[in-house]
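[recover] target loaded
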């Protein structure tokens, strides 16, 4: 699971992530955030030097240079302090160019929540491992009960969340937990990953409701319509012990996909949900791939 999360994070570049249940996967997530920060810093330096461009053939057959990076994205991740410093230095020099390379990107952060109460927990080793590997600047560890943690930000957890990794024993209360935190997930493509969803009765019942609601929405995007994810005991219902009752509520539009490791008996799967607000889609940037 760790390598998969590392690869996913390296690809989608979350700026703010939340992991519920610390341990083995935490280090992979932190390593991905560190490597993302370095990659984007390198990209920003190339962009500032005017080197982040690629040659291509224009309509008249001539060779033209086009941007290799998405300017809007690169601007959005620049640290406000670094941008202000760069702008001030440029103004003092009488030039609109950035001074000293590119504005530094704000460091991506993983908020990690664990109450350290599990008998075989490795959560207490996370901070030690992060410090040993030089990853601590990306980690904010919250020693707390996930059920008592408020999603409204009083604990300093950033919003919107680009990635929420649920890796603790929510059982039949998974609907309830997801309902509480779903509003904090980035509505423009934020991801929720849930561990061990396919081959155990507890979570499979929840997953089938989620699958039924995927890709559906009410007219205003406020509910899933057609039953599906909102079925059962209504919004926030806790459900029965087998996970068959309750409902995961009005999640709006989302997509869903699950993955299985077929050779394993336990902890052999995970499900990814992508939140998609009404009317939003990924931008079309080019005519050809």
């Amino acid at each position: 699971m760790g390598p998969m999360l590392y690869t996913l994070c390296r690809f989608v570049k979350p700026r703010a992530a939340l992991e519920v249940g610390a341990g083995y996967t935490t280090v992979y997530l932190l390593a991905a955030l560190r490597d993302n920060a370095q990659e984007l810093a390198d990209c920003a330096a190339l962009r500032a030097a005017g080197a982040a461009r690629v040659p291509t053939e224009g309509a008249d057959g001539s060779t033209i240079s086009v941007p290799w990076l998405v300017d809007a994205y690169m601007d959005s991740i620049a640290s406000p302090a670094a941008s202000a410093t760069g702008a001030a230095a440029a103004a003092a020099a009488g030039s609109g160019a950035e001074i000293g390379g590119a504005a530094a990107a704000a460091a991506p952060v993983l908020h990690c929540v664990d109450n350290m109460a599990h008998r075989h927990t490795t959560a207490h080793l996370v901070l030690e491992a992060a410090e040993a590997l030089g990853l601590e600047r990306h980690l904010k560890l919250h020693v707390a009960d996930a059920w008592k943690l408020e999603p409204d930000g009083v604990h300093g957890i950033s919003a919107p969340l680009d990635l929420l990794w649920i890796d603790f024993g929510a059982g039949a209360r998974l609907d309830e937990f997801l309902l509480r935190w779903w509003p904090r997930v980035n509505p423009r493509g934020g991801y929720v990953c849930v561990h061990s969803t396919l081959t155990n009765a507890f979570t499979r019942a929840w997953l089938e409701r989620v699958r039924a609601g995927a890709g559906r929405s009410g007219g205003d995007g406020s509910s899933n319509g057609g039953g599906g994810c909102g079925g059962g005991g209504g919004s926030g219902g806790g459900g029965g012990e087998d996970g068959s009752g309750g409902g995961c509520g009005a999640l709006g539009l989302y997509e869903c996909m699950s993955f299985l490791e077929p050779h394993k008996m336990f902890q052999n799967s995970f499900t990814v949900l992508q939140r998609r607000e009404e009317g939003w889609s990924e931008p079309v940037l080019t005519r050809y791939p």
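[recover] notes: The chain has one domain: 2-39+107-276.
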